[in-house]
Amino acid sequence: SWRFFSQLRSSPDRSSFGIAFDIDGVILRGRVPIGGSPQALRRLYGDSGNLKIPFLFLTNGGGIPESRRASELSELLGVKILPSQVVQGHTPFKSLLKRFENELIVVTGKGEPALVMSEYGFKKVLSLDEYAAYFDNIDPVSQYKTWTTKQAFNHHSNSKDLFPRYNVFSDRVKATFVVSDPVDWGRDIQVLCDILRSGGGLPMQNNGQQPPLYFAADDLEYQAAFPAERLGMGAFRIALENIFNRIHHSALVYKSFGKPNSFVFKNAETVLRQIKASCHDDNGVGNEEMASLDFKTLYMIGDNPPVDIKGARQAGDPWFPILTRTGVFRGKENHAEFPADLVVDTVEEAVEYILSKEG
Ligand code: G3P
Ligand code: MG
């Protein structure tokens, strides 16, 4: 049953609302759909398969380009998801293109972080794997890692020829990006400390101005396939920051993107407006009706109170946060510190509530 925690707004017209779905813990657990997500999403399309209700995915996850994530989601959920409907933690890294387009940057995380950044237009991208391969013994325990030695050995033989466009021995690293959850925390902490305290120079030099460090998100924990929460990028950030601050004279400087930052919700609103415009086009609605692309209500359906609910609440009007019990949050009542406007068991229940309220 639904539990209401704020007054219902007056009933707006059909097209004046949109929905942002969190992915991990709301739509999927690992790669498995949860909470009736395929059925819920299907209700947002018309009989002809055209999108009827503007919606997007607003996730702090990532590691693959938005276009690829869109096809993966389409396949898993059985509806046609467009790349424009996928906003990942690292999507706003695009806004840093002007500053670093032609500079050497080092990026890390699961999936293909270098591909993600290259697709955004960054021209000199090295994955942390590639960067590390230039330096023999940079990771003193690498020989115990059967899962990385293969790649490391390939690069070791003649590493300078492998990435001829960049020369890490003469080019300074101008910025570092944690694009998705790091796979090898120990190696990544070591090599990031090397780059950051050498001022983007060689790992053997421990001086220089720290280059900028960007995180795609700052989730302490998130809901993956395992039944209990797993440590996220925010946990990695705490580990890196604590260690860096112990070995370096000045404190780590960094910036985290992703939810709960208000600019993420502002951007989602803009993207939803564009999606709404294309819905109107597809459904053959005249221009007059497109006159107002504003929303009376934007629903954020999330599972993580300090991330999804805090973010939507902070973003203010027209955001209406809905909390599900399929992920990080499992409480009976509302969350005490970051209360949602509505708490439901599943995303299917959330969509049912929205559609009946919006009529
Ligand atoms: O790594 C993914 C995780 O941090 C959060 O994903 O979809 O719950 O925002 P999501
Ligand atoms: Mg989540």
TrEMBL record:
Fetch the InterPro entries from UniProt. CDP-alcohol_PTase-I (IPR050324), HAD-like_sf (IPR036412), HAD-SF_hydro_IIA (IPR006357), HAD-SF_hydro_IIA_CECR5 (IPR006353), HAD_sf (IPR023214)
List the GO cellular component terms.
mitochondrion
What is a single molecular function from GO for this protein? hydrolase activity
- Gene3D superfamilies referenced in this protein's UniProt entry, alphabetically: HAD superfamily/HAD-like
Q: Which UniProt keywords apply?
A: Hydrolase
GO BP term, example: glycerophospholipid biosynthetic process
Which protein is depicted? Answer: HAD-superfamily hydrolase, subfamily IIA, CECR5 protein
Q: What is the lineage of its organism?
A: Eukaryota, Viridiplantae, Streptophyta, Embryophyta, Tracheophyta
